[in-house]
Write a structure and sequence with these properties.
The chain is an alpha/beta fold and 525 residues long. It is 30% helix and 24% strand. The chain has three domains: 313 residues, TIM Barrel (Alpha-Beta Barrel), CATH 3.20.20; 95 residues, no CATH class; 98 residues, no CATH class. It contains 17 helices and 25 strands. Helix 2 runs parallel beside helix 3.
Length: 525
């Protein structure tokens, strides 16, 4: 588990590569990059730890070139940072003696995470981007040594015109060294330094040109491999949405300010959005809540005509496995956000990647109704898109029931209902009845049978109205007798074929063979 709060500190601009996209190599080539003094760096580490950060990433330029590098690592280890990430281009670390000196600073084997900057999955693309002959071989030596020592290795690449075509070769490359994570990031123009228009044109081809190679990459990695494609607008490759991300975990950055000073800590992802925007057409996109848009410089080079929103109704097509479940809920979230009753309006927000939450609070008493929309399944109601769950019940049950029904009616619009939101959702039920209803909801839908309504007459008794596709209808009842589950069904007309087969499935879910609770079923005339 990663530490909850993290900070990254740039140990100067000095770099032994000259990457076409990076300000640090350019600053070094221009003679502007300088070694940073020890004490300000050590003080930044101390202040970060005092603020509660427990994960530290050391950046450059190339951090290993700084005279203070090992002192900073030693200080961070001594303070008690739980994880230290060394973001390196792998050139100096190809010297095994130097690497050993760094590893000896770790409190235990495997303490460091080595984030290796590989700027192309083969020698030609990497060295064409770093402009450093021999740098690819040095990276391979670094990773060979790290793998032999059992160190954790991750890989990063900035996607530019000189390397994007090689990305589908990464699975074969990184698998040799036990790499479990690969992060690709679209180049950010503001981090590129002082570049001509021609350089930007070469650096930033259209995203559409990149998609075929990125698609091959995604298809080439194992299912459990941690692949991230940063800042690619979702609409260019919605089928790759499971691998695309914008922004990340809350991170403070301390960067070089001028030639030798360090900045005050700033919010990394807030600042990273400064040169991005969303064209007007983005408003209707299913991915809009998690997309930060496109870079202004990209729009200058390529325009915005290719930015085409993905309508919510296309989500089952582009993401049939619901790997980006939050995007399936975008339109529902918008509809729920427009609900109101007098001065009451709900708060709606995405909770992680797999849950949408809604809270309605009365201005007095313990009266919060807190609901969650999750993947289809159990819950108190479910459609083929989501299931509804009650996380907090208000003391005012009338208020809670009214809003629960409002939310259900709005959220399920245009969807196939698997099992309807029941009136039992906010009622105190016996443990046995609640368990049996949960079991039935988890097993739904039943072949040829629709769950129409749930009625509760007491804490131990519920009736479920069922309708078959071929016209048959029945009422299933569940009750208790001395702690023993009882129940049965009543036919409401002809026992049709679909009704009989569906009822067999329903009764199978309640069979004593499936449960520790005994059950007696009766057929009512």
């Amino acid at each position: 588990m990663e530490p909850k709060t993290q900070v990254e500190i740039q140990l100067g601009h000095m770099c032994n590569n000259r990457c076409v996209f990076c300000v640090s190599g350019q600053q070094t080539a221009m003679g502007r990059a300088r070694p940073l003094p020890f004490e300000p760096l050590l003080n930044s580490v101390r202040e970060a730890y005092a603020k509660g950060h427990r994960k530290l990433t050391l950046l450059g330029g190339e951090p290993t070139l700084q005279p203070a590098f090992k002192d900073v690592v030693r200080e961070a280890v001594g303070l008690g940072f739980e994880e230290i990430v060394i973001f390196t281009n792998g050139v100096k670390t190809a010297r095994e003696a130097f690497l050993q000196e760094v590893l000896e600073l770790a409190p235990r084997p495997g303490f460091f995470t080595w984030r290796i900057s590989i700027q192309g999955a083969n020698q030609a693309s990497h060295e064409g981007t770093t402009r450093k002959p021999g740098s690819f071989a040095r990276i391979l030596r670094t990773m060979e040594t790290l793998q032999a020592r059992g160190e954790r290795i991750t890989v990063n690449m900035c996607v530019v015109g000189s390397n994007f075509a090689s990305v589908d070769e990464f699975p074969a490359l990184v698998s040799r060294f036990g790499v479990k994570q690969l992060h690709l990031d679209m180049v950010r123009p503001m981090d590129a330094g002082e570049r001509t228009e021609e350089e930007f044109e070469q650096m930033m081809p259209s995203y559409s040109e990149m998609v075929p190679a990125l698609t091959r990459l995604c298809r080439g990695v194992p299912e459990a491999f941690d692949l991230n494609i940063g800042n690619l607008p979702f609409c260019f490759a919605p089928e790759l949405a499971a691998w695309i991300h914008h922004d990340g975990e809350s991170t403070e950055t301390i960067a070089v300010d001028g030639e030798r000073d360090l900045s005050r800590p700033w919010d990394k992802y807030f600042v990273k959005r400064r040169d991005k925007f969303k064209p007007p057409q983005c408003a209707g996109c299913a991915f809009e809540p998690r997309c930060s848009g496109i870079f202004q410089k990209y729009a200058e080079l390529h325009g915005t005509d290719e930015v085409k929103p993905v309508p919510p109704e296309r989500m089952p097509e582009v993401d049939p496995k619901r790997r980006v479940f939050w995007a399936h809920l975008t339109e529902i979230s918008r509809r729920l956000g427009s609900l109101s009753e007098g001065e009451l309006t709900p708060q709606v927000w995405l909770f992680g990647d797999n849950e949408l939450r809604l809270s309605v609070v009365l201005p007095h008493g313990n009266n919060e109704l807190l609901l969650a929309l999750r993947v289809p399944g159990a819950g108190v109601g479910s459609t083929d898109v989501f299931s509804l769950h009650v996380l907090r019940v208000p003391s005012d049950l009338e208020f809670g029931q009214r809003w629960l029904q409002k939310v259900w009616d709005v959220a399920r619009e245009g969807q196939r209902v698997v099992h309807p939101c029941g009136v039992d959702a906010l009622l105190p039920l016996s443990r046995l009845l609640a368990l049996r209803l949960t079991r039935l909801r988890a097993a739904a839908p039943f072949s040829g049978l629709r769950w129409v309504e749930t009625r509760v007459s007491s804490s131990t008794r519920a009736e479920i109205e069922l309708a078959a596709d071929d016209g048959g209808r029945a009422t299933l009842w569940l009750d208790e007798d001395g702690g023993r589950g009882t129940g049965g069904y009543r036919l409401l007309g002809e026992a049709t074929s679909d009704l009989k087969s569906g009822l067999r499935q329903v009764l199978g879910c309640l069979s004593p063979r499936r449960s520790a609770e005994p059950l007696a079923l009766k057929v009512a005339p």
